[in-house]
C-alpha cells in the first residue's frame, strides 16, 4: 500500500510590503477591507515652485500640508521676494500633492 502525505497545500501569500513597494502605497488592510496608511509611514506632501508659477526648481516637502506651507513661505520671501498673503496661501494649498 502506497502512503500519501495528508497535508494541505498552503496558498502563497505575498506580504503587503511587496504588494505596496513604495512608502506611499504601503498600507495595511483592516478588517473592513479599507486601506489605511501605517503610522510609521505617513504620506509625505510636496510643492514645487513651478506648480505655483515660478521659474524655480525648488521642491518643498513635509509630513503635512502645514509643514509644507511653513517652509514655502520663507522660500517665497527669500528666493522670489514675494510675501505670501492669506489669499495666496489658500490657492497654494490646493497645489500641494502627495510626494
Overall morphology? globular
Q: Describe the sheet with the most strands.
A: 3 strands, antiparallel
Q: Compute the gyration radius: what is it?
A: 23 Å
* Distance N to C terminus: 63 Å
Count of DSSP-assigned helices: 4
The chain-level mean pLDDT equals: 75
Strand-pairing-aware structural class: alpha+beta
User: What share of the residues lie within helices?
Assistant: 25-40%
For the largest sheet, list the strands in their spatial order. Answer: 4-3-5
Run of helices and strands: HEEEHEHHE
Number of domains: 2
Unreliable stretches? 17-30
User: Per DSSP, what share of the residues sits in E-state strands of 2 or more residues?
Assistant: 15-25%
Number of strands: 5
Topology at a glance:
Elements: H1 16-19, E1 27-29, E2 35-37, E3 45-48, H2 49-52, E4 59-62, H3 65-80, H4 86-93, E5 97-98
Antiparallel strand pairs: 1-2, 3-4, 3-5
Descriptive report:
This protein starts with 15 loop residues before the first helix and ends with a strand. Residues 17-30 have low confidence and may be disordered. The protein is an alpha+beta fold. The chain is globular and about 35 Å long. Helices cover 32% and strands 16% of the residues.
At a glance:
With 99 residues, the chain is of the alpha+beta class.
Task: Please tag this protein with its features.
single chain, 99 residues, alpha+beta, 2 domains, three-stranded antiparallel β-sheet, 4 helices, 5 strands, 16% strand, globular
Amino acid at each position: 500500500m502506497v502512503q500519501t502525505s495528508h497535508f494541505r497545500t498552503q496558498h502563497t501569500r505575498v506580504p503587503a510590503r511587496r504588494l505596496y513597494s513604495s512608502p506611499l502605497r504601503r498600507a495595511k488592510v483592516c478588517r473592513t477591507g479599507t486601506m489605511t496608511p501605517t503610522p510609521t509611514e505617513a504620506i509625505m506632501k510636496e510643492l514645487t515652485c513651478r506648480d505655483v508659477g515660478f521659474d524655480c526648481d525648488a521642491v518643498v516637502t513635509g509630513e503635512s500640508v502645514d509643514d509644507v506651507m511653513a517652509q514655502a513661505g520663507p522660500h517665497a520671501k527669500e528666493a522670489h521676494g514675494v510675501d505670501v498673503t492669506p489669499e495666496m496661501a489658500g490657492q497654494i494649498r490646493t497645489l500641494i500633492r502627495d510626494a
